[in-house]
Design the sequence.
């Protein structure tokens, strides 16, 4: 069931979104050579708690950290640990915060020091594919209109979208209906977008093929071919006009 949020619930989601977006920005600023992924996790945990919120991911289906840190060929769900970030890495940060009954959820991929031109292009295309999808995140369109716009932009640029993981509704639960895939199929469900819907649009984009593999830790998802991958996500509110970005990305680099 797709829930429509009331004005009051939207206020609460703005608050969760603000904290989540600030946590992403803080984590992104920490992405520098020599930092360990668990240092980022600890800082994010402290920040989210300092805001009176709870990290949405911590203990979610047994997930052991407050943030996902996915490096290079890791697509999503990288578990923070002793890994030391290196110059040239690309680092996807995914974070959620829960406060007053509602979640925020957002992600972005950051450059660690200087990175290759192709890695930079992957990050830029992934981010832009979100904004291509966002053009259809309005009443009068349907979920697959978003999906198609993301997929077409990514593929036009020579990259591929991940199929096994998708965007989703966000609210009292981190994952609600509807699913928001980054690709379309002939028989995809076609839910209408209505004001009051809050959804996470989150392209996961591989430089190479679309295939994935899950690591033995049970969480980390990598590209099957070892190619680089990037991720970009915001929680958004469907309105009677422009969508509202509840996890405001304006504080991120470019
Ligand atoms: N942020 C992810 C999503 O968008 C969820 C992370 S899974 C967790 O669906 F286990 F790390 F929480
Ligand atoms: Co999400």
Sequence:
């Amino acid at each position: 069931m797709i829930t429509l949020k009331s004005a009051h619930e939207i206020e609460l989601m703005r608050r969760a979104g603000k904290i989540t977006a600030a946590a992403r920005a803080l984590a992104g600023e920490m992405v520098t050579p020599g930092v360990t992924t668990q240092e980022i996790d600890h800082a994010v945990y402290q920040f989210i708690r300092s805001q009176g919120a709870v990290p949405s991911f911590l203990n979610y289906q047994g997930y052991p950290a407050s943030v996902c840190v996915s490096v290079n060929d890791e697509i999503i769900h990288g578990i923070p640990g002793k890994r030391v970030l290196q110059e040239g890495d690309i680092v996807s940060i995914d974070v959620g915060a829960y406060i007053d009954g509602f979640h925020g959820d957002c992600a972005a991929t950051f450059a660690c020091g200087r990175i290759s031109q192709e890695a930079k292009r992957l990050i830029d295309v992934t981010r832009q594919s979100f904004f291509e999808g966002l053009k259809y995140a309005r009443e009068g369109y349907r979920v697959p209109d978003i999906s198609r716009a993301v997929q077409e932009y990514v593929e036009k640029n020579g990259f591929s979208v991940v199929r096994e993981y998708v965007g989703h509704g966000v609210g009292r639960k981190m994952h609600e209906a509807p699913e928001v895939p980054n690709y379309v199929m002939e028989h995809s469900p076609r839910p209408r977008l209505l004001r009051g819907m809050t959804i996470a649009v989150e392209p996961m984009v591989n430089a190479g093929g679309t295939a994935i593999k899950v690591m033995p830790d049970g969480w980390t998802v990598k590209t099957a071919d070892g190619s680089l991958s990037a991720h970009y996500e915001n929680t958004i509110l469907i309105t009677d006009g422009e969508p509202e970005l509840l996890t405001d990305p304006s504080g991120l680099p470019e």
Summary: The radius of gyration is 17 Å. The mean pLDDT is 98.
